[in-house]
Write a structure and sequence with these properties.
This protein is mainly alpha-helical. The chain has one domain. It is 78% helix and 0% strand. The relative contact order is 0.22. Pfam families: EamA. It is found in: Membrane. Keywords: Membrane, Transmembrane, Transmembrane helix. One of its GO terms (cellular component) is membrane.
Length: 301
């Protein structure tokens, strides 16, 4: 497989970054009118249905789901239900851009978790340096929340970070699905997580008693589920198949700028200098973790 990045692949990657950045934008709109758990349930259920339509019974999906339903259930909890709920609760008080920046620490937590839970992904000096820089950026972002003068409470700042930690566990746990067709893994985890999120939202929010939200909120929910979840998974797997998982991971650097841009243009959000500084440190940490920039600099002329 040719894992080089050509113009077409870069285009797909940038599009994916815009779409996943859009998930924070759409969520920020929706959580103003829809309770977080109900929003999680709607996102997962609609996305699961869309992916089942896309797969259309191919890849022996139903046999795989039946045989591995427990594993899909665990993956659905740590990769969908828990992190989505944490992000949406956080976004009741946070803008799209700041939530996306905090959640961009996912690769840092993945590296730290994999070091303890796997035997083949141990920390190197470069990984340690990248983690330290990224964590410093996180501290810069969360620090003001400790003081009472911060606009965003500490819990709201911590929730997207905890979601990133959950994604880190999911990334490590997801290695056991190697060999399972990627669309099946996506549909399986979304199906399992829907079955968990739906009763939780029914018990907690009594959605039948809620006021029907405005049209723009309904459209944001559809975009969150169909565009930023179902279609994004398909696009992500396409990038992996053409450019490899390592190149696909570059999307982590593209999501926060996308969310910030959408928040500034349409929601009137603004980031402070310290928030830009925290984003820069996290981005630099991710570049160090990626390692390719360092190898390129060290490559003999």
């Amino acid at each position: 497989m040719d894992s080089r990045m050509n113009a077409w692949t870069w285009g797909l990657l940038i599009l994916l970054g815009l779409i996943w950045g859009g998930s924070f934008f759409f969520a920020r709109i929706a959580v103003q009118h829809v309770p977080p758990l109900t929003l999680v349930s709607l996102r997962l259920l609609l996305a699961a249905l869309a992916l089942h339509v896309y797969v259309a019974g191919r890849f022996d999906i139903y046999s795989i789901l039946k045989a591995r339903w427990r594993e899909f259930l665990i993956l659905g909890i740590i990769n969908n239900v828990l992190p989505h709920a944490l992000i949406f609760f956080g976004q009741t008080r946070l803008g799209a851009g700041l939530a996306a920046i905090l959640n961009a620490t996912t690769p840092i937590w993945t590296v730290l978790i994999a070091n303890y839970l796997t035997s083949d992904e141990k920390l190197t000096s470069a990984k340690i340096a990248g983690c330290l820089v990224g964590l410093l950026g996180t501290i810069v972002l969360i620090g003001p929340g400790i003081s009472t003068g911060s606009e965003a409470p500490l819990w709201a700042l911590l929730f997207p970070v905890l979601a990133a930690v959950s994604y880190g566990f999911a990334g490590t746990y997801g290695k056991r699905f190697k060999g399972v067709p990627a669309p099946v893994t996506a549909a399986g985890q979304l199906t399992a997580s829907s079955l968990i999120a739906l009763p939780l939202s029914l018990l907690a929010d009594r959605p039948w008693a809620l006021t029907i939200p405005p049209l723009e909120v309904l459209l944001a929910i559809l975009a969150l589920a169909l565009l930023s979840t179902a279609f994004a998974y398909i696009l992500y797997f396409r990038v992996i198949s053409t450019a490899g998982a390592t190149n696909a991971s570059l999307v982590t650097l593209l999501v926060p700028p996308s969310a910030i841009l959408l928040g500034v243009l349409f929601l009137g959000e603004r980031l402070s200098l310290s928030e830009f500084g925290g984003m820069g440190l996290i981005g630099f940490g991710l570049v160090i973790l990626d390692g390719r920039a360092y190898r390129l600099l060290m490559k003999p002329a």
